Structures are given as C-alpha cells and as structure tokens.
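Changelog excerpt: complex records now keep ligands as SMILES alongside chain sequences, and the structure block spans every component. Example after the change:
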Amino acid sequence: MSATTTNPFKTGQKIAVPAKDDGGLWGYLRNYGQRVRGGDMGALPAVLGLIVLSIIFSVARPSFFTPANFANLLTQAGPIVVIGMGLVFVLLLGEIDLSAGFASGVCAAVLAILLTTHGYPWYVGVAAAIVTGVVIGLLLGFLVAKVGIPSFVVTLAAFLGFQGVVLWLLDEGTNISVRNDVIISLENEYMPPLVGWALAALMVLGFAATQLIQQRNRRRRGLPVLLWQVVAFRVVGLAVLVGIAVAVLNEERSRNALFSLKGVPIVVPVVGVLLLLWTFVLRRTAFGRHIYAVGGNREAARRAGIAVDRIRISAFVICSAMAAVGGILAASMARSVDPNTGGSNVLLYAVAAAVIGGTSLFGGKGRVLDAVLGGLVITMIINGMGLVGWSSAYKYVATGIVLLLAASVDAFSRRRAAASS
Amino acid sequence: MGTPLLELRGINKSFGPVQVLRDVAFQVHPGEVTALVGDNGAGKSTLVKCIGGIYPSDSGEYLMEGKPVHVHNPRDAASHGVEIVYQDLALCDNLDIVQNMFLGREKKSGMILDEPTMEQLAQQTLASLSVRTVKSVRQQVSSLSGGQRQTVAIAKAVLWNSKLVILDEPTAALGVAQTQQVLELVRRLADNGLAVVLISHNMNDVFAVSDRIAMLYLGRMAAQVKTSDVTHSQVVELITSGRSGTLGLAEEGAAA
Ligand SMILES: Nc1ncnc2c1ncn2[C@@H]1O[C@H](COP(=O)(O)OP(=O)(O)O)[C@@H](O)[C@H]1O
Ligand SMILES: [Mg+2]
C-alpha cells in the first residue's frame, strides 16, 4: 500500500504556524479550567480523593499517617493496581472482564503448584502463570471477537468456570504455601535505601529528558510547544512527590532495635515498570492508538483498515496476562494460594480502581496510570477503615458507594462532553 | 475520452433477499467531478461501499486504469488510490484531528509513532485546503462542528496519494457558507487531476461542480451523461422514474 503522502496543492504557500499556545500561562490555566468544566477531569477526582481520605483517616487514627502504614498501603495496593491496569485495556474497548479476579487465582495456583509441589525455579513458575493468563485471554477474546458473544456473558461464565478450576487445581480447597524467596520478596521485602534513591533519581531524570527531547523535536519542526513553566512544573512536581515518598519509605519502621525495616517495597518498581511499559504501548505505538480507535468508533476503525478482531483479542490477552501478574503478587503477599485467591471482591476493586482513576466504562477513554491512582484510593479506603476498626460490612458498603461515585463522575463527564460539542 | 480511472461492470449486490444493486456499470475519469445522484434508497451509499471495499460485491468487474483489480477490504481500495468520505463520517470522537487523519496508516520511526511528522503533515494539508476554522490540529474531534468534521474527513482523504476521492453527501448537514467552501474544495480536487465522485441530493450543487452525472434508479444505473448535455428537469425525471425521453432504462418489464 502507498505510504507516501503528497500535498495535492503545491501552491508553495508558507504555512503560518503559531510558535506556542497563545495566552501564556494564564491562557494555559484557563484552557485547563475549561477542559475540567467540559467534563475532562483526568486524574483530578482520584487525586482529590487521596488527599481527602488521607486527612480523614489521619485525624481518626494517627497510626494511619506513619511510614509503616504508607509501606503497607503500597504493598496492599499491588495486586489490585496490576489487575486494574489490565482491565484498562478491556474497558478502553467498551468491554468488561468479570473473570480477571479468578483468572489471577488460576494463574496463582499454577505458580504455587509448580514451585511448591514440583520444586521448579521461580522463573519457570512465573512464566507458566503468565502463559496461562495469555491462553485464558486468547480464549475469552476469541469468544468475544470471533464468536460474537457479549463480553459480559463470556466473562461471567468464565468467572464461574475459573472458580471451579481453582478448586480443582487446589484439590477441592487445600491451601498451598509459597516459600520461594524471590516470589515472597515481591510483596514482603524492601530495597536498600540507596537503591531507592538511585531509582527515584533515574525516574525523574528520565522523565525530564523525554519531556525536553519531545519539546525540542517539536520546536525544530515549528510545531507549538508547551510553556516552559508547564514542563518545569511537571518535572519538579514529580521530583518532589517521588522524593518525599522515598524519604518517608527510607525511614526506620522497625520498633525492635535488633532488626531494621526500611526502604521502598520491591513491588513499587515492579508496578512502575509495568506502568511505563503499558503507557508506552498505549501512547507511543500504533497498536495503542488502534485500541483507542476501536473503543471510540469500531466502524471507523474498521474502515481505516484496522484489524478490529485482532485488537479486541489482544486487549483480553493483555488483561488476563496482567491478571496473572496480579495473582503472583497476591500469592506473594499471602505467602500461599487458596481457593479464595483472586476471589471475593478482588475484581470489583480492580474495576473500581480503573474507573476511579478516570477510565471510562463506555470505552475510548482511559490511561494505565488511572489504575494506579484509583487502586491507591481503593486501598486507602480498605486500609483506613481497617485501622479505624470498622467492620467488613461498612467496608463493602463504602467501597460500593465509591465505585458508584466514580461511575457517576464518568457518566457525568460524558454528558458534559456531549453537551459542549 | 481516454481510459476511465475507475470502471465497474455488471455489479450486483444483495443484502439477504434484498437486491440493492443490479448490473451496475459506472465510470469515473481523472480530472472530473462525477455526480452520483438517485432517490433515497437507490443504492448510492451501497455502491460507494462496494467501491471502497466495505462490502464485497456479489458479482461484477472492478477495473482501475483499465486493469482488473480485487478489492476485498478498505486497505485494498486505499492501495489503489481510492479514498472515501463516508456519509456517516468515519471519525473517532475520542481521538484528535491528527490521530484521525492518520488512523490505520500512522507514521512511525521504528516502532514509535512519529507524532511531529504527522502533526506537520496534517497542518500542511489543512492549510493547503484553506481551512482556517480549526483552532488546533490537536483538538479532539468530539469538540468540532459538523462542517469542521466534514473538512477533517476530506482532508483525511486527500492527505494520501489518492487518485479517486468519493464524497457521500458531504454538504447534507452544512450551512450555506460551509457548503460553498466544500464545493469549491471539490472542484479544486478535480482541477488538480484527481477523479472525484460527489453524491448529492442538491441539483444546484450537482450542476455547479460536476462534469458528468450518473443516475441510479432502484439499484440500476439509469444513465451516465455529460452535465452539459442534460437539463435540471431531465435529471429529476431520471431520478424519479428512471427514464426521460430517450435517456434511461429501456423498459420496466424485466424488473417488475
Ligand atoms: N447493511 C445493509 N443491510 C441491509 N440492507 C441495506 C444495508 N445497507 C443498505 N441497505 C438497503 O439498501 C438500499 C439502498 O441503500 P443506500 O445504498 O443507503 O441508498 P442511498 O445511499 O442511495 O440512499 C436501501 O433499501 C437500504 O435499506
Ligand atoms: Mg446514502
């Protein structure tokens, strides 16, 4: 096919290109305000939620606002965030995967059986768990895209089916403990303080470098560039946030003089790498662009020559593979796998994480970062209510209300966006 | 007259029991605007979708520059230089103008999307079409007006090295000024050597810009004539009854 683009009108006219968004910093802020009022709230609700929840729980229970609990929060959020990241892909298509929770349970069971029962090394177990996830995703995607069954039905059936598979794998409900050091370290070990600082510096420098390179490339082409204040704000903001987090996590958390407990949980860089990977895929590759296109207007995507079925199947594969990673983290956190791994409210929490972060249930809108922010909100609710001593009854009700709130924000922003065009 | 750029012969297309196109012949010449007219439901959009590879035709020949080609999907059509601006605009609301214009054919460096190049080309194309109404090419399509969307869709079609641009009722939803702009644009595309097919219900538009008129009547090609050889009322008669004097379908007998 012809990949050349030619301009049919070679009139030789020079095209006037604005050097930067007019209106300066004020114009930028006004623009941002308009976007928010127009329904495009981005990460705002999740960030506000995190701030409000921190204040409430810190007042109610001072032990909430401690380095030890901060580290707890991050490790607890691990599985929810990772499963939520995978769900973002399916939600972007306007589909749903109700089976992601139990898919993570099946994959965790595969891991535990290979490691504990058969004594394989950790990487074999991890690879097998992820391959199991990929196979599950292929099956779900095939049934949705090729056979044409609504994803709600396919994954509801899988939700029930996988529950049975977990029971079968675990011999009707025995609990298999996981003792592999590498797997256990994921959710239970911490990086040496210096390594934490080094990774933080690397992250901030890497972010600053990509921003600067992007802006330079655009300026060279005469394309509009961001105000330098905005770029500086982003870089400095990230540096401050990451810096505070690492400093807090590097504080001594042990109350016992005999051993030391400090550093950034290992799970944090694991989630960070996944966040970078999938953000790159969604924002910088044609595949990612096509996911948004299929979610926004499937017929338009088809007419643009996009292999829609393949995109839909891939999204389910990514979702189930990420569920496998989430299952591995859950196995690490519990140090065992039982029939309830990935069960009860794991799926609900993961969907809620994506939606609270700003991913739309209607498809076409969402980021992988949403699952991280929303996952932190959800974990903060669970963790904080636990500390305050509220019963499970309240936790369920509160989480349900938060999910409904997030979905309302989603529906509301859609209405605003539709009305403003 | 030289070889037509596109020639269809004996195209049939049914949706289940409903035959929408019957033995349709159609020719399009480079440098000309060919108007495709017909009543609602005559099969104009279906014919266009067959040309664009959206629907496979049941039978018939498809020739580009005199050579038979096979068009099974939109990519095949694009590879032969055929671009279609659909009536139901095929744009993704959740993507911006640049992303829509390059959808399915993104510029890449390695495996990474080459955003600056795409943005620059999109901007140049819009500027060359004298489009001044869009504020930024990074605007989401959901924030555009009907006319702006139409412009983006047309710009998307001419961005590629296309030989044939087909516009399905591009002015149906537009105001007077925007209609005028789009028609001027259509004329300029043809004057630059492209073959253009324009579907329209508006006889004034058809007579203003077209070189030839093709008339579909109940899925059959009633006539294809030079615009200068016919009058308004003849065209209207052909559209409504399939016949006008010596022009049009011979007898109703076979179809009834
Ligand atoms: N996908 C489809 N399935 C079944 N019938 C269709 C389909 N598309 C069009 N038709 C029918 O084909 C006929 C021609 O439609 P169309 O090509 O849209 O006409 P026009 O564009 O000339 O108004 C109509 O009777 C319509 O109902
Ligand atoms: Mg039509």
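Residues 193-220 of chain A form the longest helix (28 residues). Chain A has 16 helices and two strands.
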